[in-house]
Amino acid sequence: MLDIFFIAMKTEKEKILNESIQYLKSVGPKRAEAFRKVGIVTIKDLLFYFPTRHLDRTTTLTAAKAYGYLMNGFAGELTVIGKVVDKEKLNFGRKGLLKVQFRDSTGFFECVWFQGIKYFESVFEEGNIFAVSGKPALSKYGNLQFTHPDFDKISEEESNSFINTGKIIPFYRIPKELKTTNIGDLSLRRIISHAVESYADNLEETLPEEILVENNFLNLVEAVKNFHFPSSKEKLNSAIARFKFEELFYLELLVALRNHNYKSQLSGHSLKVKTNLVHNFLKTLPFELTKSQLKVLSEIRKDMEEPLPMNRLLQGDVGSGKTIVALIAMLIAVDNGFQAVMMAPTEILADQHAKNISRLMNRLSVAHKEPASPLVSQGGKEIKVSLLLGGQKKSLKEKNLQDIKLNEADIIIGTHALFEGKVKFNNLGLVIVDEQHRFGVAQRASLMSKGITPDVIVMSATPIPRTLSMTVYGDLDISVIDEMPKNRKPIKTILRGDSKLPEIYKFIIDKMKDGYQSFIVYPLVEESEKLELKAAQTFYDELKETYFKNINVGLIHGRMSWQEKEEVMMLFLAKKFDVLIATTVIEVGIDIPDANIILINDAHRFGLSQLHQLRGRVGRSNKTAYCILITKDEFAARQDKFQFDLEYLSPVQLEKYKSSVRMQSMVKYSDGFKIAEMDLKLRGPGDIFGTQQSGFPELKHANLVEDADVIQFAKKKAFELIEKDPHLQNETNLAVRKNLIEHYSSSLRYAKIA
Ligand code: ADP
Ligand code: MG
Predict the structure, then answer these.
(1) 619 CB under 6 A from ligand 1?
(2) Whose CA is closest to 260, among 741, 696, 714, 753?
């Protein structure tokens, strides 16, 4: 009731802010439409479209000073402002180069471009003023020279007041939709400046007064004004500090609400090792568990003994042996008479888990058929494994559902369908979620709504940084397997251009002598003209006729039913194929020990963690494994020439050279934690961890890696507030409540307020 009341009660000020931007000075219907395409509809939206960076006097140099810096050995990035005085196209290589000369009151500098010459020629009109940023060098004529720098256009007037009064100039990201309506740096700044001057005063505060005062934060109006057009560097920093805090504060409020909700409904089970079931199982394994696996297991055991439901994230790089650990936890649950469920992200992976686990359980029961069987102390009951998948024959599925309901099945394996509709568990004690950090909030809520609070282990090869887990999963414990089984050798990763493919095919055929099988991965199933990507089907047909005429080649792709996929995988495992042509359906979890070469076509199209997952398909035995990344020749050649310092990437490099950074990271790093760190830098956490399902709103201001202390503080404040006023009913918290409902309603599904 209260919620509806609030939403209905829009104030006069709010109405003004919610008006379309169309009537703002120099906008109009066409530009308003372009803004709408990038999500800016109302005046309020525009007020919250913040600059990505600012130009201020403390970070810019004159041409003369920059030259001096360079002569003194300074090798970092710097910014210089100058007017275009000349430009010329010179002969250089195949395409030539563009040289643009600039001048300021102290001297000259120049910029050169080897690519996109036509475009840059049109950008740098004589007489225009630009702020140029990059790492300069000396040209062969001894001039201060930037190669492919960043640049922003500023007006004569801005440049004057910048130089004379130290005014700070904001720069905004300009999406291509805006560019097509002729909105550039200058015009966007003018439009936003107008909106800020005329409308920012209407914004209503969204943080509690007490927090503002206590931390000396700028109020919302001042913060918005100073974020766009700061009156000083200090004011800018305090505006940014406020928004960082605010963003994290609301995020933590959601965690606090969820936590409150969860704690008020708890009732778990205490699960202990009862018989020697686990002990006997360990004896049937052909290997010893690593120290790391044992450590993680003891953490899990401790959690299971507690009567509170376990909520644990099990991290470990691809191939580190998470499955066995999970299986042992499942056996503990079974040992206590409970059912255990394993949820896999794909049907073939579920199928593979079911086969492996059934095999291990059979071995266990065979090993203990003797009279003193531990299965007797288990009530004489053998451990039954049940696989539940969509597309199973109706009769089989019905039987499986019955088994699950009647506790005939102890270990149940399937996909997310396990948590939907029809499945009724008899006595669910443990849920394992494989390779999917998305589980968690939503599925747990769905189980809780059925009155079940099982122990939960989420397994992931993508390590979640501590700051992030602290934030998103306020109540999640973490175990890490940080050691690989002993027999593993590092995987050799190389990058090659497509013209090398014939040689690589020959390599694949050569290596068959040593028992190697190979994956060849393509991004799509069928040819798509638009993207020019190679497609598995087409290349399968072609390769079979040409390079791989005399060897056995299989094909697997996402359009097959899981039964078809399963058949192909079984044949590959049985070495009926030497080469398997595949799409990314093999990405997750598939375990074929003799497949030790993976060739990934159009590798630059894949995400970093996806590439690492794909690479994880090989290197599962004691043979040297190879991961060969294929890109266009030109691209591959460029990577040799321009090697990034991956430890110190600038924001510009991260923004503009994503695919190069991905390729170079793959070649340089084999450690999944390192890869994940790079991925986080490239993509941001919202993208990686799935905004919707993890209940994780995208962060605009705060950085989860850098702002750990702000997170901590915001968390403290948020938890304090919810503890005092769990339903946000106090007068002083009404603004917070209103803002939550307005802006975080989708996340609130899991964090009821009242
Ligand atoms: P992931 O952590 O990627 O899920 P898996 O659980 O699939 O890894 O394990 C990869 C392979 O390593 C499997 O074939 C598994 O049987 C094997 N394995 C697991 N633990 C060990 C160990 N301690 N020593 C040797 N091999 C192991
Ligand atoms: Mg796995």
Answers:
(1) no
(2) 753
Q: What's the CA-to-centroid distance between 282 and ligand 2, angstroms?
A: 19
Is any ligand 1 atom within 6 A of the Cβ of residue 518?
no
- Atom of ligand 1 lying closest to residue 290 CA: 23
Of the candidates 130, 127, 92, 95, the residue with the CA atom closest to the CA atom of residue 111: 130
- What is the number of the ligand 1 atom nearest to the C-alpha of 324? 6
CB 81 within 8 A of CB 60: yes
Distance, CA of 194 to CA of 203 (rounded, Å): 15
Q: What is the pLDDT of residues 364-391, one digit of tens each?
A: 877 655 444 444 444 445 889 999 887 7
Return the domain boundaries, the chain.
57-167, 277-306+320-460, 492-669
Q: What is the pLDDT of residues 117-160, one digit of tens each?
A: 888 999 999 999 999 988 899 988 889 999 999 888 889 888 88
Q: What is the reported pLDDT for 697? A: 56
Q: Does the CA dihedral 704-705-707-712 come out positive or negative? A: positive
Interior angle at CA 578, CA 573 and CA 583, nearest 5: 80
Asked whether 121 lines ligand 1 (CB < 6 A), one says no
615 within ligand 1 shell (Cβ under 6 A):
no
Strand order of the β-sheet with 385-388 is 385-388, 411-414, 339-343, 428-433, 455-460, 311-316, 477-481
Alpha carbon of 360 to ligand 1 centroid (Å): 13
In 3-state terms, what secondary structure has residue 82?
Answer: strand
Q: Which atom of ligand 1 is nearest to the CA of 322?
A: 2
Q: Are 460 and 436 in contact (CB under 8 A)?
A: yes
For 104, other C-beta atoms within 10 Å of its C-beta total: 21
- Calpha distance 489→620 (Å, rounded): 9
Ligand 1 pocket, residue 345 CB under 6 Å: no
Question: What is the per-residue pLDDT across 638-661, written as a single tens digit (0 to 9) for each?
Answer: 888 888 888 887 777 777 888 999
Pocket test for ligand 1, best of 320, 622, 670 (most atoms within 8 A of CB): 320
Q: How far apart, in whole angstroms, are the C-alpha atoms of residue 427 and residue 414? A: 17
Say yes or no: CB of residue 289 within 6 Å of ligand 1: yes
Ligand 1 center from residue 324 Cα (angstroms):
7
Q: How many other CB atoms are found less than 10 A from the CB of residue 372?
A: 7
Q: Is 708 in the pocket of ligand 1 (CB under 6 A)?
A: no
Task: Note the CATH number of domain 277-306+320-460.
Answer: 3.40.50.300
CB of 321 shorter than 6 A to ligand 1: yes
Both ends of the chain: CA-CA distance in Å? 10
For ligand 2, the distance from its centroid to the CA atom of residue 319, given in whole angstroms, is 7
Could you tell me if the CB of 357 is within 6 A of ligand 1? no
Q: How many angstroms does the Cα of residue 349 sit away from the middle of ligand 2? A: 9
Tokens of 273: 């090792």
Q: What element of type H or E holds 406? A: none
CA 318 to ligand 2 centroid distance, Å = 7
* CATH class of the 57-167 domain in this structure: mainly beta
Sheet arrangement for strand 553-556:
491-497, 625-631, 595-600, 517-521, 579-582, 553-556
Ligand nearest to the CA of 483: 1
pLDDT of residue 477: 76
The pLDDT of 215-243, averaged and rounded, is 95
For residue 502, the model assigns a pLDDT of 96
Distance CA 219, CA 686 (A): 27
- Whether the domain at 277-306+320-460 and the domain at 492-669 fall into the same CATH topology: yes
Mean pLDDT of 227-249: 94
The top-scoring range by mean pLDDT among 109-118, 495-504, 615-624 is 495-504
Among candidates 442, 416, 438, 411, which has minimal Cα distance to 323? 411
Q: Count of residues for the chain?
A: 754
The domain defined by 492-669 folds into: Rossmann fold (3.40.50)
